[in-house]
């Protein structure tokens, strides 16, 4: 029985992942949810009902705690917990339709529920599924502790992404479905008020520069392509491709990247080969990860004007995903410079990238990029012309140079100003979070 229950929990969670990625109307959902439902019916043949619970961060049935499974499905467990569900009971009369509705309910992002969740739940008429300890904290009532938990889950998702990178480096199998599920959870968190994502680039979460870079570029590319209007399946493909765009480098890095001196011509040639090497590695994973990832690995240094590397034997235009990733790639590389050199002020990064419009970058895409992220990204610490210190809180899409900021110093001046409308103050300069801006970091 225990094996059967574990099998069912696995299938239930795969159904949830597929529902999140493809929606419940997709044939893929039908396939996985049918499998889960057959196992469930089988269990209910022998028991009138069965209950599983979540204890701490683990899935449990009676006295059995499924440690291994729980480790693999942390994001899903977080979804149960996020909805206040600690116990779920299924009983014999359950219909497939009830099961599907329940999965759909689980798969809907938390922020899409504003009304009374319990009322919603009963309106679904889920007679044969009962959940226990529903205790939804409204956004306003969220305790500081809850915020901490929330952010730590976000952290967890990020480290999971880096585990996927490690898996490929070590030649392990990779769960493409779970990876995309993690990506979409990261994106969900970006929608919320805790917009951590640009701060992320400032945080040194990983020792290995390449790992941090891959995760950052993936998140940038996902957010960017979502904002561009790509469908979920497509922006997840782009995010996945971005996550692995430099994977070839990790294989080379052990020999060459760590070299402190300038690379010789020969070494540089090896370095350039990370594109081809990456594409070769990712082709082996195409069944799980799709074909966009090897295409992007191959094309991301080709440049919009096709003057980059590796020299292609074809002349068709680059894949849109490669053009998107290449913008995010360079943007992150320039932002990350702060880790070992003097900071690059964001306006300088904008100028540099804009000079490459039509050369390195697709012109309209580059414009859209800065409309979305602004010249001064969220969380940037600024000195204004009246000597007040402000932090960027929101972009103005029609004026990328003048965001909405919050004055944080002097304390008595604390307020929001829209720099697009208020023409009496201007931005004087950027304060680096590594030096002059350091003391304002807690306010970011
Ligand atoms: Fe690269
Ligand atoms: Fe890169």
Describe it.
With 444 residues, the protein is of the alpha+beta class. 51% of the residues lie in helices and 11% in strands. The protein has helices at 2-22, 27-46, 67-72, 74-82, 96-107, 117-123, 144-169, 176-191, 197-200, 209-228, 232-243, 247-253, 265-272, 274-283, 286-289, 292-299, 320-336, 346-355, 363-373; strands at residues 49-55, 58-61, 64-66, 87-91, 129-132, 381-384, 389-394, 404-409, 415-418, 427-430. It binds fe (ii) ion (2 copies). One fe (ii) ion is lined by residues 246, 274, 300-301.
Strand content: 5-15%
Question: SS-based structural class?
Answer: alpha+beta
Evaluate the radius of gyration.
24 Å
Largest sheet: 5 strands, antiparallel
Secondary structure tally, helices? 19
Low-confidence stretches: 134-143, 198-207
Arithmetic mean pLDDT: 82
SSE sequence, one letter per element: HHEEEHHEHHEHHHHHHHHHHHHHEEEEE
Outline the fold blueprint:
Blueprint: H1 2-22, H2 27-46, E1 49-55, E2 58-61, E3 64-66, H3 67-72, H4 74-82, E4 87-91, H5 96-107, H6 117-123, E5 129-132, H7 144-169, H8 176-191, H9 197-200, H10 209-228, H11 232-243, H12 247-253, H13 265-272, H14 274-283, H15 286-289, H16 292-299, H17 320-336, H18 346-355, H19 363-373, E6 381-384, E7 389-394, E8 404-409, E9 415-418, E10 427-430
Antiparallel strand pairs: 1-2, 1-4, 2-3, 4-5, 6-7, 6-10, 7-8, 8-9
Helix pairs in contact: 1-2, 1-5, 1-8, 7-8, 7-10, 8-11, 10-11, 10-17, 11-16, 12-14, 14-16, 16-17
């Amino acid at each position: 029985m225990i094996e059967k229950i574990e099998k069912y929990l696995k299938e239930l969670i795969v159904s949830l992942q597929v529902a999140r990625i493809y929606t419940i109307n997709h044939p893929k959902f039908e396939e996985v949810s049918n499998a889960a439902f057959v196992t469930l019916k089988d269990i209910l043949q022998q028991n009138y009902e069965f209950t599983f619970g979540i204890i701490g961060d683990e899935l449990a049935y009676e006295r059995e705690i499924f440690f291994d499974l729980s480790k693999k499905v942390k994001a899903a467990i977080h979804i149960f917990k996020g909805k206040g569900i600690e116990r779920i009971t299924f009983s014999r009369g359950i219909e497939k339709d009830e099961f599907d509705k329940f999965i759909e309910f689980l798969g809907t992002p938390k922020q899409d529920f504003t009304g009374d969740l319990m009322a919603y739940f009963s309106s679904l008429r889920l007679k044969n599924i009962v959940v226990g300890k529903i205790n939804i904290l409204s956004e306003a009532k969220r305790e500081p502790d809850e915020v901490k938990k929330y952010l730590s889950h976000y952290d967890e998702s990020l480290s999971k992404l880096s585990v996927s990178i490690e898996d490929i480096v070590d030649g392990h199998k990779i769960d493409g479905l779970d990876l995309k599920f993690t990506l979409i959870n990261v994106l969900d968190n970006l929608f919320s008020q805790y917009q951590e994502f640009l701060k992320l680039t400032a945080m040194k979460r990983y020792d290995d520069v390449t790992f941090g870079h891959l995760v950052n570029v993936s998140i940038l590319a996902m957010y960017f392509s979502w904002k561009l209007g790509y469908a979920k399946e497509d922006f997840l493909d782009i995010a996945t491709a971005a996550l692995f765009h430099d994977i070839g480098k990790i294989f080379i890095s052990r020999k060459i990247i760590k070299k402190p001196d300038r690379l010789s011509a020969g070494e540089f040639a090896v370095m350039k080969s990370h594109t081809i090497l990456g594409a070769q590695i990712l082709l082996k994973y195409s069944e799980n990860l799709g074909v966009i990832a090897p295409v992007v690995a191959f094309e991301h240094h080709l440049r919009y004007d096709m003057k980059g590397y590796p020299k292609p034997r074809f002349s068709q235009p680059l894949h849109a995903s490669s053009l998107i990733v290449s913008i995010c790639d360079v943007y992150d590389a320039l932002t990350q410079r702060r880790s070992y050199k003097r900071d690059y002020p964001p306006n300088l990064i904008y100028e540099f990238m804009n000079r490459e419009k039509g050369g390195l970058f697709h012109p309209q895409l580059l414009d859209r990029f800065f409309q979305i992220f602004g010249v001064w990204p969220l969380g940037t610490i600024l000195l204004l012309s009246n000597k007040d210190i402000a932090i960027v809180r929101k972009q103005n899409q029609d004026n990328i140079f003048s965001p909405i900021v919050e004055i944080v110093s002097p304390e008595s001046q604390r307020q929001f100003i829209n720099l697009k409308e208020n023409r009496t103050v201007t931005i004087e300069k950027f304060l680096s979070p590594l030096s002059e801006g350091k003391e304002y970091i807690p306010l970011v």
